[in-house]
Amino acid sequence: MTDAVAPVTILKEQASLLGQRTQNIVEARVTLAKSSLDDEVPFRYYFLLFAPALDYRYHLFTVSRGLEFYPVSVKFEDLTYQVADEDEFMRYLADIFSSERTKAIISSLLAQSKAA
What we know:
The structure is a single chain. By secondary structure, the protein is of the alpha+beta class. The protein has helices spanning about 5-20, 85-100, 100-115; strands at about 25-30, 45-50, 55-65, 70-75, 80-85. The protein has one domain. The protein is about 40% helix and about 30% strand. It has a five-stranded antiparallel β-sheet with strand order 1-2-3-4-5, covered by helices on one side. The longest helix is centred in the C-terminal third of the chain and has 16 residues, at about 100-115. The protein is globular and about 45 Å long.
């Protein structure tokens, strides 16, 4: 048994924090993609930004994993990274959330939502 935190738990915590920081003007949602019996990756999570005032969703990144919590594969901006453990996963998520691209998307959604 491992003491590692499930990647989906970390993603949901980050989603909650984004909503708090934007007063729920921009929210984040974590969804599990349905897998088929022949799917090599049984768990695939989509991290979506959601602007309720606009009824708009934006797929920010995808996290995929096998039956074990780690390693995970993270696809962001057409690049895929292999992440070995929870600490590395947390560091990589911090990089995603602090990236200029992510900040620009969230700022745009905030501005458009406030104008709507």
